[in-house]
Amino acid sequence: MESNTGPRRERGRKFIVKPKVCMFCADKVPIDYKNVSLLGRFVSDRGKIVPRRRTGVCAKHQRSLAQAIKRSRFLAMLPSSPEHVYNISGAEKKA
Ligand SMILES: [Zn+2]
User: Fold this and answer.
1) Which of 17, 86, 76 lies closest to 45 in space, CA to CA?
2) For ligand 1, a single-atom ion, which residues have Cβ within 5 Å?
């Protein structure tokens, strides 16, 4: 016997529920557009800004983070499209 209205239905949700604390609030890390290694953690491999619910960054810091990432993109320090990512990874074996 199967009932569709079971008490627990936790399928279909695949969000990584990890740290819920904003790392910028917790560690007091300044968001700097020159800090590429930091910003790179909030950019997906396709050059997109990772949504807040994935990173756990608070709204305030996500805003300044997005601003910093955009600034950094403008200076060509971060990729803004998959093509750029490809270029970076393929740059080493250039004939
Ligand atoms: Zn924060």
Assistant:
1) 86
2) 22, 24-25, 58, 61
